[in-house]
Amino acid sequence: xxxxxxxxxxxxxxxxxLRRVAGVVQAVTDVSFSVAEGETLAVVGESGCGKSTIGxxxxxxxxxxxxxxxxxxxxxxxxxxxxxxxxxRKMQIIFQDPFxxxxxxxxxxxxxxxxxxxxxxxxxxxxxxAVSSLLRTCGLQxxxxxxxxHEFSGGQxxxxxxxxxxxxxxxxxxxDEPVSALDVSVQAQIVNLLKDLQGEFGIGYVFISHDLAVxxxxxxxxxxxxxxxIVEEAPAETLFARPRHPYTRSLIAAxxxxxxxxxxxxxxxxxxxxxxxxxxxxxxxxxxxxxxAERCRSERPVxxxxxxxxxxCHFAETVPADAQAAESAPSDNLxxxxxxxxxxxxxxxx
Length: 350
Description:
Blueprint: E1 2-15, E2 20-35, E3 40-44, H1 51-58, E4 66-71, E5 74-75, H2 81-87, E6 91-94, H3 108-118, H4 127-137, H5 154-166, E7 172-176, H6 184-201, E8 204-208, H7 212-218, E9 221-226, E10 229-235, H8 236-241, H9 246-254, H10 294-298, E11 304-306, E12 309-311, H11 321-325, H12 332-349
Parallel strand pairs: 3-8, 3-9, 6-7, 7-8
Antiparallel strand pairs: 1-2, 1-4, 4-5, 9-10, 10-12, 11-12
Helix pairs in contact: 3-4, 5-6, 6-12, 7-12
């Protein structure tokens, strides 16, 4: 359904009175992946690694510097303004901040009616019933339509954001950390709602998150991003069971757990993310990598297939013993988070 080839987004840094280019921030470089109908691809990584830039570039909320994005065989990157507006009916986004993404001067009814009327999906006579149907689908009541965003809780506001994204019956929704600003119990409700909507409408998700428990619950496949590049992509079960890139192992090890002595997949990553203005030569992860060799400092690894995993590491076949012996279950804290999600789903079903 979605095909991304060589997606690149660089930002020019301009300084001085003449606004001359003083540098280029390499936010996203040569990213390629695909998403099938009804599939969830999770994009994970540290803050500042380029996850949100990838999501916004897919929808051309940010214009890509290079690359190609195709939805149902139509090149999104080549569309003019009018054609792009029509294509946006098939592509929607759920933002991280449910309060900042809603117009405080518009009621919920006005917020949801706008895309319906704009794309001709409802008329003035039918828009009220269409709004009520959207609210029910997303776990709200029709009488909520007359309220303003500040009158809702965080979880309710995010449900309004989901309803707005769902209004045009899109093929693809980019979920930009949709639960990171919510309480854990509310997170479970929103995640379960997204899964139910996907099962009902066959929507494809690009799910951006840094919460590995939520990713493990949501994703069919996971793409790990480091400094604007995908360093590993694999089915979720494979990636958590046997991560092949040292950075992926470090992310899993960094997940909070009740007993810090309980570790899987090595040690958490140390140091800070390098500047995207001047990425390190060779492998960008080598200054922080415990497995770095001289080859890593001079030669950038290409993204290649190793089994059913795509990984950019010179030593991907050499998985450390702790990763080989690790079970497919996540850490204790992730197990507990998953139990909370499953319990919330069972309660809602009942």
